[in-house]
Design a protein that fits this description.
heterodimer; A: 521 residues; mainly alpha; 3 domains; B: 373 residues; alpha/beta; Rossmann fold; two-stranded antiparallel sheet; 17 helices; 9% strand; globular
């Protein structure tokens, strides 16, 4: 049930009305039933996996919570406390292995076996590892990460375990976020899910606004940009340099508007029912550096990686030792930044792996990890160069240069991410440098990408609107701005936005509604 | 939530619903399509005002003229056909006819049996009928029977399909205004006229009358013909006449004749009359050198000849002109005759000038409104 289908809109309408009609104290049960209906609508056979994750995390957190209390008890002996801690740790590892194991097996087994077979073939060793016909449950990457953050937080004693299994089930399966995130945290989301209160008028209004904006991004911009990007990446050999550069640019736009559009719909949907979900995008293409880009892009995954991989990794004795060694050998700066760089390399390698079983994703992750690591390590060099070349880093022109430079780097990232094979990555990358090569008949080439002139106009207007809104949003919430206008302007705006999506949106026969980019992850 | 806020939500819901309905009305139309006009105009006819209805594909309106039949024989008729209508649509059309009309004879042209299985579910051909008929149980059944499962939603909710017509927004608005102002309602039959002003001479005609060999029909069209015959028999419909419109044959088209022969045998098995016009080309007086605009369709000269022949034959058997119609209906049909004469004159001129012009709703409307006889 993708967000841009009629079935979802009917379902949402039902849940929205229902959430206002059911008594406040039963609201969470209603949401749980709705979420399970939403999940089962895709396929009942996926249910077993989400139930397994729910049940294992519920039992593990209860057990760990109990052990944690015993550990904290003043009457316990030191040895008993140590025993409790060990038990907690064992349960944590078991739960993580089970849940990440399922994810890894379903997502990466075939990738592993194909690569191993290739290796065995190269080494002329006969044995073959079979490839399996595996189904990938909907949203497994998202709900596994979300649930494991809850388990780890309980282990760390940051939060109390939830004693009601049904409530844990709701946290794991809450329908707006299960397909594409954002990856929520228990301490932020759970109290809102279980709170016996209904959404306010303002929540309803703001939620619907956010949904409209999400649909605008997805159906007006992303799905048009996708037509161009798909064509160019599949036929780049027969497209001019300018065409390939346009295709890459369009993929960068598609990736952002598709994913952030979906997140806006999800967040808006939750807000109409009185819940605020984690922010996942903060105008990432306005970033001045790659590390800033990653603080603005897929923020919930970034923050998950920071809390559960980066910090624990950086604090391991081995990494600290490396830091100390580097400090002694190369000075204070390297000593401080080398563990961070190593942490970033690991984090971005995992981010790449999280996206799927393809070498492209892994290289894409390493590409970003490497860039961030290098930029951190080389910071004194950049500062020195800026000083020597008398570059005012605060000037608007330099900031604009930084934004464009970062956008260009993310476009390179997009090539790695989108191209089918590594050879394609290299060829598309090289062809982009010939962006000044115009085709003989520009109009003919543009139309050959699959959009007619009128659709290009809609896309262009959509992009201008997106740019204006994002610029305004950088300064102050656009929704707050709209709120201050008179009712005529506000309502006019809502109706026009609704009409635009209704008319110019890409949906209906001949269009595959399931193609939300991040649904595949 | 305060009462005022609830009131605002209510008003906004009404506004959005209004917007959706308005857009649905404007966008969900095949603007300037003769098929759309022909189907929609059928529902504007007075109940029980028709003596004859012809059901089928394009041959029903290119080969037969209802206004001419009224002029020459005095009976009222209507060509309820759509371009490329597959055989499966005939039952749906028949059910719609019987809802509002009680004609003395219903002619079902079986052109649809020539379409293969793929064509039976061809979107454009199905939509020409289904999207223009009003919501009813029959419409839902037609969709369920003929449309592949994964495509049905956009037939139930046509906006899903037609919203992409925004590029033709202006045409849609104009067509909507015409519909709202009942602009075309005086020429209900004529507005659906469609054809090509052209002569395509038959180069190497082959004799077909004596070719009686049969060939199995395509699976789906054959099945749909059988279902139609079952429906007619189970509902005790006796006033049904099946026809096959004339065409000129090349060697390649022999299998079509053979499928027609198989259909003929099946229709006779059920006890229904079948007129194969290919067998009456001489009686009709069709000249293969002047009366066709392509292999399967008659031009306006051929149409005139076939209407005269069929009208006479029907009148003799079914006494169509005996019915006494209201003055209002007679008046309307007289206006249709005037419109037809204007169209005939225009098409004749175009053929003489060798312009090979296709004409449909848009041209027909202009001719009726502007041209003097």
């Amino acid at each position: 049930m993708a967000f841009n289908t009629l079935v979802f809109l009917l379902f949402f309408l039902f849940v929205l009305v229902g959430s206002f009609l059911v008594p406040a104290k039963w609201k969470w049960i209603f949401l749980l039933l709705s979420s399970y209906f939403f999940y089962c609508y895709a396929s009942v056979k996926f249910l077993i996996f989400i139930l397994l994750t729910t049940l294992s995390s519920y039992m593990a957190t209860l057990y760990m919570g109990k052990q944690y209390q015993m550990e904290r008890s003043q009457t316990s002996t030191k040895e008993y406390k140590k025993k409790c801690h060990l038990k907690r740790k064992r349960v944590l590892i078991l739960t993580l292995v089970l849940n990440f194991g399922i994810l890894l097996f379903l997502k990466y087994f075939n990738f592993f076996s194909e690569n191993m077979n290739h290796l065995l073939e190269t080494l002329s060793l006969g044995s073959q590892i079979p490839t399996l016909h595996l189904i990938l449950p909907l949203g497994i990457s998202f709900y596994t990460f979300q649930t494991m953050s809850y388990v780890i937080d309980v282990y760390w004693g940051k939060i109390e375990p939830e004693r009601n299994l049904a409530k844990v089930a709701l946290f794991v399966s809450f329908f707006p976020q299960i397909l594409q995130g954002p990856i929520g945290r228990f301490k932020d989301l759970a109290p809102q899910l279980y709170a016996p209160q209904k959404a306010s008028y303002r929540d309803l209004k703001f939620g619907l606004q956010l949904m409209l904006w999400g649909y605008f991004k997805k159906m007006i911009i992303a799905d048009r940009a996708a037509v161009i990007a798909d064509f160019v990446f599949e036929n780049y050999m027969n497209v001019s340099g300018m065409g390939v550069a346009l295709g890459v640019f369009m993929y960068a736009i598609q990736d952002y508007t598709d994913f952030s559009g979906c997140i806006d719909i999800a967040r808006g949907c939750a807000q109409t029912m009185g819940m605020t979900m984690a922010e996942n995008f903060r105008r990432p293409y306005f970033s001045k550096t790659v590390s800033e880009f990653w603080r603005r892009w897929h923020m919930s995954l970034g923050s998950w990686m920071k809390d559960y991989v980066f910090y624990p990794f950086s604090l391991t004795p081995g990494v600290r030792q490396i830091g100390k060694f580097a400090k002694k050998r190369f000075g204070k700066h390297i000593g401080r930044t080398l563990p961070i760089a190593l942490g970033n390399l690991l984090v971005f390698f995992l981010v790449g792996v999280w996206h799927g079983a393809q070498w492209n994703y892994i290289i894409w992750g390493i590409f970003y990890g490497f860039l961030i690591a290098i930029s951190g390590l080389m910071k004194p060099v950049w500062n020195y160069l800026n000083q020597k070349l008398h570059i005012s880093v605060q000037s608007r022109s330099f900031q604009l240069f930084q934004i464009l430079r970062t956008f260009w780097i993310t476009c390179v990232g997009c090539i790695i991410f989108r191209a089918v094979t590594l050879t394609d990555v290299w060829r598309v990358f090289l062809k982009c440098f010939h962006f000044y090569e115009f085709p003989l008949d520009i109009k003919k080439e543009l139309v050959s990408f699959g959009l007619n002139g009128k659709n290009y106009v809609v896309l262009l207007i959509g992009l201008i609107v997106l740019l204006i809104v994002d610029i305004l949003q950088e300064k102050k919430s656009v929704r707050e701005r709209i709120e201050k206008r008179s009712i005529w302007i506000r309502w006019g705006l809502y109706l026009v936005a609704f009409l635009i999506i209704l008319l110019f949106g890409m949906y209906g026969p001949g269009y595959d509604q399931t193609q939300f980019v991040y649904m595949q992850f | 939530m305060t009462k005022f806020q609830k009131f605002k939500i209510f008003i906004m819901t009404i506004l959005i619903a209004g917007l959706v309905c308005g857009m649905n009305f404007v966008m969900c139309r095949q603007a300037y399509s003769s098929d759309a006009v022909r189907v929609k105009n059928f529902y504007k006819l007075e109940n029980n005002s028709l003596d004859m209805v012809m059901i089928g594909a394009s041959t029903t309106f290119t080969n037969y003229s209802a206004p001419l039949a009224f002029k020459e024989f005095g009976y009222t008729s209507y060509s309820l056909g759509t371009n490329g209508a597959p055989m499966g649509l005939a039952k749906s059309m028949l059910i719609e006819v019987l809802k509002t009309q009680n004609p003395k004879v219903i002619i079902i042209d079986i052109n649809g049996i020539l379409y293969d299985d793929k064509f039976e579910s061809k979107e454009g051909s199905l939509r020409a009928w289904i999207d223009n008929m009003p919501y009813s149980q029959n419409k839902i059944k037609t969709i369920q029977e003929l449309v592949p499962e994964d495509e049905r939603l956009s037939y139930y909710v046509p906006f899903l399909k037609y919203h992409s017509n925004w590029a033709k927004f202006k045409d849609n608005v104009n067509a909507s205004i015409d519909e709202l102002t009942h602009h075309d309602d005086i020429h209900l039959s004529s507005m659906g006229i469609q054809g090509t002003a052209q002569i395509t001479p038959q180069k190497s005609p082959i004799p077909i009358k004596t070719h009686t060999q049969e060939r199995p029909m395509y699976r789906l069209s054959g099945l749909h013909l059988k279902e139609l015959l079952d429906y007619c028999q189970n509902h005790g419909l006796k006033n049904i006449l099946f026809t096959n419109m004339p065409r000129y044959y090349s060697k390649k088209m022999i299998p079509e004749r053979e499928r027609n022969n198989a259909a003929k045998a099946l229709i006779h098995q059920y006890g229904y009359e079948y007129i194969d016009m290919d067998d009456y080309v001489d009686e009709i007086g069709l000249n293969p050198q002047t009366d066709f605009y392509n292999q399967n369709h008659l031009n306006i000269y051929g149409q005139k000849k076939l209407t005269m022949y069929l009208g006479k034959r029907l009148n003799e058997k079914y006494h169509l002109s005996d019915t006494q119609h209201d003055e209002k209906i007679i008046q309307r049909y007289q206006q249709e005759v005037t419109a037809y004469e204007k169209i005939y004159k225009w098409v004749d001129e175009q053929i003489r000038l060798g312009k090979k012009r296709r004409y449909n709703y848009k041209e027909v409307k202009e001719i009726i409104e502007k041209q003097e006889i």
